[in-house]
Design goal:
- There is one protein chain.
- Among the domains are: 139-175, no CATH class; 188-228 and 306-437, Peroxisomal Thiolase, Chain A, domain 1 (3-Layer(aba) Sandwich), CATH 3.40.47.
- Helices cover 35% and strands 18% of the residues.
- It is built from 15 helices and 16 strands.
- The strands form 4 sheets. Strands 1, 2, 3, 4, 5, 12, 13, 14, 15 and 16 form a 10-stranded mixed sheet that branches. A two-stranded antiparallel sheet has the order 6-7.
- Strand 10 (234-235) and strand 11 (241-242) form a beta hairpin.
- Helix 7 packs parallel to helix 12 (350-361).
- The chain is globular and about 75 Å long.
- It starts with 17 loop residues before the first strand and ends with a strand.
Length: 439
Amino acid sequence: MTTSKTQPKQIKKVVRPVYIVDGSRTPFLKARGKPGPFSAANLAVGAGQPLMARQNFEAGNLDEVIMGCVMPGPDEANIARIIALRLGCEKHVPAWTVQRNCASGLQALDCAVQNIAHGRSDLVLAGGVESMSHAPVLLAESMVTWLGAWARTKTLGARLKVLGQLKPAYLTPVIGLIRGLTDPVVGLSMGQTAALLADRFGVSRDQMDSFAVRSHQLLANAQDEGFLNEIETIYDIKGHFYNEDDGLRRDSSVEKLGTLKPVFDRPFGKVTAGNSAQITDGAALLLLASESAVRKWNLPVLGRIVDSEWAGLDPAQMGLGPVHSMTPILKRHKFSLDDIDYWEINEAFATQILANTEAWKEAKYCREELHIRGTMGELNMDTLNIDGGGVSIGHPVGASGARIVLHLLHVLERNTAHRGMASLCIGGGQGGAMLVERG
């Protein structure tokens, strides 16, 4: 028996350009201690209906719908499919939901990019949604066990016996939102990881509060100047309308923020509710298309998705995820920080943003953690989150990744700029980033 030494010919993958042609989002609505006016599915439909209504094609022409969501409601299993059908997609249009914590919306976009780039799809609706005010309140395991015993009883005597075993402690609820914002591996809340970064990089309370004030001032200016035209007005069942992000505090000041007590590491910590992202409800949806779909449907082009990256790091340092995901993209394309015209880095915490900018300037961190020689340098803050960020706008975890990409493209268009980078830190110790260009 003889064998050929000829190696099988490698099949070259054809990678096509991917364009973002349009997008919409809801206002981001601050949670105020009770379920907000909209479920997650209603938020996404509120953003999606006007988006689809202005297109040259029908919803049934979409190849798929991909949505990021971390905490869908009990009636929202595979929420992407629910959204797709409610938007008028025909039954043949598949839809699926992704979850990567804070970057779920960015993950949805990345999945759409891969399918379009490799020829599996031509036209995709992708984005993210979260109704954090509707986060589930769960029963403790002890209560679930008791209910199971109760359900198995058949006689009055047995029921009285089981009823006598019920303890008040069983009724203690499990708050899904609190559990979701806590890392079970390292046992730290997201705020505690931010506090660790403040200590590691020497970020002061005054610096955090100053950055938070900046976020509110920039959002106020963006609202006044009409820079947030990606927002669609939504209406609740009582006839109320919502047309702007309502977490804005126009009177915010370093002096006022300085009066707030620390939320984490009491009483000496620096991270407060005022310099952290707000708990928020919201949705952001984008339409992505191949070049052939752009031509077929005569679609406008907001920009092109050029590259993306996902990174892992110590969960206790999760806030540094942006530098871990953005740096490989910059190195791949041989870009310096100055080659990026504008940045949208999600403001999970003011200290987290400041720690990332410090990490890029620190030679030891760049060498030991980012595995590069020298430093990346100093980020021009005038190009970062120029219309506010999570501290003022809010951070509905499933939606933020889609929001920052959509708004970044609008910023590039408004300023006749070419290149932008969007990035988020991710609970559990990850980072995600996406490079976009226009023109």
